[in-house]
Amino acid sequence: MTVVETRRRSASHDPSPAPANVTPVIVSKNLTVGYKLHRERKKLTALRDINLTINRGEFIVLVGPSGCGKTTFINAISGLVEPWEGSIEVNGQPVVGPGPDRAMVFQDYALMPWRTVESNIRMPFELQKLGLSKEEMDERVRHYIDLVELTGFEKSFPYELSGGMKQRVGIARALVTEPDILLADEPFAAIDAMTREAMQSELERFVAKTGQTVVFITHSIDEAITLGDRIVVVSHRPGQIKEVVDVDLPRPRFDYDVKLLPEYSKLRDHIWHLVKDEALRGAHGEEG
Ligand SMILES: Nc1ncnc2c1ncn2[C@@H]1O[C@H](COP(=O)(O)OP(=O)(O)OP(=O)(O)O)[C@@H](O)[C@H]1O
Ligand SMILES: [Mg+2]
Q1: Whose Cα sits closest to atom 23 in ligand 1?
Q2: Spatial contact of 213 and 58, defined as CB atoms under 8 Å apart
Q3: Sheet of 241-246, strands arranged across
């Protein structure tokens, strides 16, 4: 078995000094975020006191029970929600809003219904000036349509697509600008099992090539282990970091059957228990 460790490793727990050869890209310090519930005139704390440093080229996976604040965390990185307390920085600067360095695959697709597949994927080029020629943009759009296997559906509208196809449009739209940071909110949730594996493998290859930093949310522990460098287990709401688990399995993981490694089942078992405990606490109505 020839396996190559292509990604940089990082410290397993925060707060921690970064090893000399890694560059912090996303730094969350004592981050607390929530929402005003206007109808009920109260506030809801979604995430509490999150301390996490994500280094350049790392693939971070967030897992945790529904409603624990995973989407809220990547919304804070993308600048769609503001910290209530603490801070969130990207490349040393406080996040003040969305920017071309970060692209998001939304949990609910967020496609423009009046635009075709091609036009949805092309949209980031209209919002950001990247200095690409028309030919380069056309080539990128074609390339990512092909990558997500939507060739032939370029002129279709979102209402003509299945859930999995819509999700693939959202993925292509996020990748088309080749952003430094990819924020992916359950990007493969609606995709059938075989295409999902193929896309996981493509994503691993893609980020190994581009060196992108990825923050990825999933409810699949298998997906978390096959993709992640570190898995952040978030507690029941208000979400706090329960544990950060290092995944020291060799890459590329899709070149061999990662599930056959003895470490795999140990990791799976460990994470499964952590998530299950939190889901049970939620079901019993305990506050995080
Ligand atoms: N725009 C909003 N306004 C008010 N409350 C919100 C809003 N968005 C999220 N919340 C609340 O914040 C909490 C965390 O939500 P979030 O979407 O971050 O959870 P999640 O971990 O992504 O869940 P899931 O796994 O179901 O997607 C939930 O209780 C949710 O009701
Ligand atoms: Mg979510």
Answers
A1: 67
A2: yes
A3: 102-105, 181-185, 213-217, 59-63, 230-234, 241-246
pLDDT digits (tens, 9 = 90+) for 227-254: 999 999 999 989 999 999 999 999 999 8
Ligand at minimal distance from the CA of 80 is 1
Q: How many angstroms separate the CA atoms of 108 and 166, rounded?
A: 9
Global pTM reads: 0.90
Q: Do the Cβ atoms of 3 and 251 come closer than 8 Å?
A: yes
Substitution site in 38, 43, 68, 81 for ligand 1 pocket (most atoms within 8 Å of beta carbon): 68
For the chain, the 3-state helix, strand and coil shares in percent, each to the nearest 5, are 35, 25, 40
Q: Give the model confidence (pLDDT) of 11-40 as tens digits.
A: 334 545 556 678 999 999 999 999 999 887
Give Cα 163 distance to the centre of its chain: 19
Q: Where are the domains of the chain?
A: 111-178
